[in-house]
Design brief:
Number of strands: 11
Largest sheet: 7 strands, mixed
Helix content: 25-40%
Number of helices: 10
Bound molecules: S-adenosylmethionine
Strand content: 15-25%
Strand order of the largest sheet: 5-4-3-6-7-11-10
Radius of gyration: 21 Å
């Protein structure tokens, strides 16, 4: 046991992980209530035999749990790889989890192939390029894959799809936390990438201005609007072919625009602005 105690002193831990009966890594206990619903959701998902990607894996709390639940392969990426996980926890557990130093923005299907389950907890609100990152995640998901997403949600305006993106000291957390979708903003954004939100669970009954939310989602490629996808991701003819452009606009946007403007104008927070 003393070797273990020595090892625990050598590293900095974020996650609290049991390394021997009754012996835990000295991680950040304050974060445990945020992680508990993710563990809970993970245990309800069909993990056995699945390929799992844990984005922002830190010390590997969710990676090791996925392995315990029978995942066929678990890959973790983090743009600040945890020495505690790589040098101590993985060997200590004789784990097959593989961790790589990688920014989500570098992730491509060629790196590790596609996955049946992506765990994306505690990372989205840190991202400066959230839409692009979500698209990259979608691109490494198999059809029908699950996305287990935990993030901070902006809870003040609920009717319109919003992204609150405070910089520096204006962040409700700290300066690296710059991306706070409201629930509609995140749900609609995910759907536009073909990812359907199946369940949501707020941590604190959706306190203002920001609460944490755990979401279980599923990638359904049929949800993707192929014309929009080409417009955003590739090349298109909607600007040069006016007829096609008009048909496109009236079908997907013009009819909804009035609704949107009305919703924004009527929502209480916006009423106080100049009008
Ligand atoms: C708040 S911790 C969350 C750790 C763990 N996922 C959890 O929920 O307990 C955020 C982790 O995401 C990593 N991270 C932040 N931005 C990232 C990015 N762009 N690409 C990969 N990892 C990132 C950080 O280094 C850190 O380890």
């Amino acid at each position: 046991m003393s070797n273990l105690t020595e090892a625990l002193k050598r590293y900095t831990f974020y996650h609290v992980i049991e390394v021997a009966p009754g012996v835990f890594t000295p991680g950040w206990k304050e974060a445990e209530p945020i992680q508990a619903p993710v563990i809970d959701a993970l245990r309800r998902l069909p993990v056995r035999g699945k390929r799992v990607l844990d984005v922002g894996c830190r010390d590997g709390l969710f990676s090791f749990e996925a392995e315990r639940l029978g995942a066929s392969e678990v890959i973790g990426i983090d743009n600040d790889l945890s020495p505690a996980a790589v040098e101590f926890l993985i060997p200590h557990f004789a784990s097959r989890v593989k961790m790589h130093a990688m920014n989500i923005l570098e992730l491509r299907p060629d790196d590790f192939g596609k996955f049946d389950l992506v765990i994306f907890a505690g990372v989205l609100y840190h991202l400066r390029y959230p839409f692009h990152a979500l698209r990259l995640l979608r691109d490494v998901m198999n059809e029908g894959a699950a996305l287990l997403l935990e993030t901070a949600i902006y809870t003040v305006h609920e009717d319109a799809a919003l992204l609150y993106c405070p910089v520096g000291s204006e962040s409700p957390y700290e300066a690296t936390s710059v991306t706070f979708f409201n629930l509609k903003g995140l749900t609609d954004t995910l759907r536009s990438f073909g990812i359907n939100v199946c369940s949501t669970r707020y941590l604190n009954g959706h306190i203002a201005p920001v609460d944490r939310c755990t979401m279980v989602c599923e990638f359904q490629p049929a949800l993707i609007d192929e014309e929009l996808r080409r417009y955003w991701d590739s090349t298109h003819e909607l600007s040069s072919n006016l007829e096609a452009g008009q048909a496109f606009l009236s079908k997907r946007h013009a009819e909804r625009r009035d609704d949107f403007v009305r919703t924004v104008r009527d929502s209480s927070g916006f009423k106080s602005g100049k009008s």
